[in-house]
Design brief:
mainly alpha
Length: 314
């Protein structure tokens, strides 16, 4: 049993999935940050309605952090945003080695959490999930492939392979980070799925309609769907079934691609109807940690066959 756990947590190599995760997640978080920068004064000063001193005290006691490091002034807020932007850009292009990339992820995590602590009222699902992914990046080296670092190495040495073997300590930490993040994604869906089963509106199939029929939440008028109750029922139960079973179906190779496709469809629907594209991209980036090289080759082959796209995985 110990040998099995050791292999599962510390000997899992998925450089391509990790690189795709790094690219999509860092680009998404950077976009979210850029969208908030123009509103820095409104979000992170007294204008937000949240007092500077004791900003985290508005949370229930159980959720109050033990350590506080949020910005106390507008200048400090801009500094945190600037440091986070620099860290995310360097992580996105993958220019640093295994030590520096992890330190950059730690910097991004600390600044991200600091801004969250300053004004918890603007925090939503994407911000919370981002803390999980940033913690995972603190453990992972995601620059073995599809990075500036890998490009420079390949150009200097003339290596034919995109992948090279990292030091044992680095590969071990990367494996642990990958597994922890995969488990976290499974827990997110499992928890939300079973929480939905506690609500009567999910059992009577009205939960989705309460969202689709709310003009303040929707990007367009979908009131016509009240005449198609079958669609509402399928969407309601489809969401619950996906969230309950996805934590299991992500892991076997036989079901992995199907459940990822269904998850993409779910979040595409959320982004299209509610405009929550940052949240959807943040969640979908976690899917990439499950895509191994054979999965990517299969997807590439399917795309190339249908659209004539040049291959990107060798």
């Amino acid at each position: 049993m110990i040998a099995t756990l050791d292999k599962f947590f510390y000997r899992f190599a998925n450089p391509h999935g990790a690189a795709l995760f790094r690219i999509l997640f860092c680009a998404t978080l950077l976009l979210n940050l850029v969208m908030r920068i123009p509103f820095t004064e409104l979000y992170y000063t007294e204008l937000s309605g949240v007092p500077v001193e004791g900003a985290t005290k508005i949370l229930p006691l159980f959720h109050q952090p033990l350590l506080e490091w949020y910005p106390r002034s507008l200048a400090q807020a801009y500094m945190m945003e600037g440091l986070q932007a620099i860290a995310l850009v360097w992580l996105l292009i993958g220019a640093c080695g295994p030590v520096a990339s992890r330190l950059l992820a730690l910097l991004a995590l600390l600044t991200h959490v600091g801004l969250m602590q300053r004004n918890i009222s603007i925090v939503y699902g994407a911000d919370i999930v981002s803390t999980f992914w940033l913690f995972g990046l603190c453990l992972m080296d995601t620059t073995e492939v599809w990075s500036w670092r890998a490009y420079k190495r390949k150009k200097q040495t003339g290596a034919k392979s995109d992948v090279w073997i990292e030091p044992v300590w680095s590969r071990t930490l990367t494996s642990a980070g990958l597994r922890i993040s995969q488990i976290q994604l499974s827990l997110i869906y499992g928890y939300t799925g079973f929480e939905k089963l506690k609500g009567g509106d999910w059992w009577d199939q009205t939960a989705i309609w309460k969202v689709l029929g709310n003009e303040q939440l929707m990007t367009s008028d979908l009131s016509f769907l009240k005449s198609v109750p079958l669609v509402i029922g399928i969407a309601t139960w489809g969401t619950v079934l996906f969230e309950v079973y996805a934590p299991v179906l992500f892991w076997p190779k036989a079901t992995r691609r199907l459940v990822i496709f269904l998850g993409l469809a779910l979040h595409l629907g959320i982004a299209a109807t509610m405009g929550l594209f940052i949240f959807s991209l943040t969640m979908v980036s976690g899917y990439l940690l499950f895509l191994e090289l054979d999965d990517l080759k299969a997807i590439q082959h399917s795309i190339a066959r249908r659209f004539g796209v040049k291959r990107f995985v060798s």
